[in-house]
C-alpha cells in the first residue's frame, strides 16, 4: 500500500470558514472552489469560497443559506448550488440565486441538502438529517432533459460521496450514506428516474472513522474517500480503494487534523495533486488547541498522470 503525507495549503483565519469546509472543485486553471457548509454550530448560513493557487489568497462570498455543494458552470461567474432545500444558480457578481425547479424534502423535517455530483444527465444530490440520527433524508436526480427533480431514495441519514461513470440514459452511480460505512453501486435509469438494487463494493465498517466525500481515480478503477474521525487522533486520512476487490491501495494523512471531509484531484504544472478539506466541526476549544490544522485545506502528492472527469455544469437555456 502506498503512503503519502500532505501539507497545509490554506488555513482560513476565520473560525467560520474552518468549521465545515467541503466540496473542493477545480475552477479554471489556477483556482479552486469550495464551500463552507455553515459558519458555526448554530449558523444558518455558509459561503462559497474561491482559492487562488498563485497568490494563496481566498475570496469568501456569503450565501443566504447553508450550501451542501456549489460547482462551477459554463459561465465563469455562476455556480450550480444546493442550498438548504433548493438547487439553483448562484451568481457571484450580484449574489442572486435562481432556482432550478421546486424545493425538495416535502413532508420531511430537519433535513438539508448535502453532497452532490454533476454528470451528463444533470445532477445527483442527497440530503442529511441535521441530527445525524434518522434515516429519513432523500437522494435526488435533477434531470437536465426536463428540469424535473426526482426522489430516488428517502431513507438516507447523511448522504455524502458520489461518483458517476458513463453517460446517456443508463449510468453507474456510486454512493455513500455515511453511517452505513459502505460504498454502494447502483445502475441509474435516467429516463425512468429509477435505481437498481444496491450492491456493496467497498465495506468500511471495520474502521472507526466515517466515510465522507469521494472521487474516482483517473482510470475509474478505484475511489479516494475522505474519512471524518471524531476521535482525538494525531492525523486524519483519505484512502484509495479498489472497486474490483474493495482492498485499500493508498493513504494520505493530514497532520493535526483528524476530520477530513472531501478529496479532489487538481493539476499544478506537470503534477496531479490531491486536495483535502478538513473541519473543526464539533471540537471544543481544548481539541482545537490540540488539532491545530483542523479546518485547513491540505495538498499532497500522487502518482497519477491525468485527471478524472470533473465536468462543468452546462446551464440550461
Key features?
2 helices; 317 residues; 53% strand; Neuraminidase; mainly beta; single chain
What's the layout of helices and strands?
Blueprint: E1 2-10, H1 15-18, E2 21-27, E3 31-36, E4 47-52, E5 58-62, E6 67-72, E7 78-83, E8 86-91, E9 97-99, E10 111-119, E11 122-129, E12 137-143, E13 148-156, E14 159-165, E15 170-177, E16 182-189, E17 194-195, E18 199-203, E19 210-216, E20 222-228, E21 235-242, E22 248-255, E23 260-268, E24 271-278, H2 285-290, E25 297-301
Parallel strand pairs: 1-22
Antiparallel strand pairs: 1-25, 2-3, 3-4, 4-5, 6-7, 7-8, 8-9, 10-11, 11-12, 12-13, 14-15, 15-16, 16-17, 16-18, 19-20, 20-21, 21-22, 23-24, 24-25
Overall 3D form: globular
Spatial arrangement of strands, main beta sheet: 19-20-21-22-1-25-24-23
Biggest beta sheet summary: 8 strands, mixed
The CATH topology turns out to be Neuraminidase
Supply the CATH class: Mainly Beta
E-strand count: 25
Beta-strand residue fraction = over 45%
Q: How many distinct domains?
A: 1
The poorly predicted ranges are: none
- The radius of gyration computed from the alpha-carbon positions, rounded to a whole number of angstroms, is 18 Å
DSSP helical segment count:
2
Structural class: mainly beta
The topology string of helices and strands comes to EHEEEEEEEEEEEEEEEEEEEEEEEHE
Mean pLDDT comes to 97
Distance between the termini: 47 Å
Into which percent range does the helicity of residues fall? under 10%
Named at the architecture level, the CATH assignment is: 6 Propeller
CATH level-4 homologous superfamily: TolB, C-terminal domain
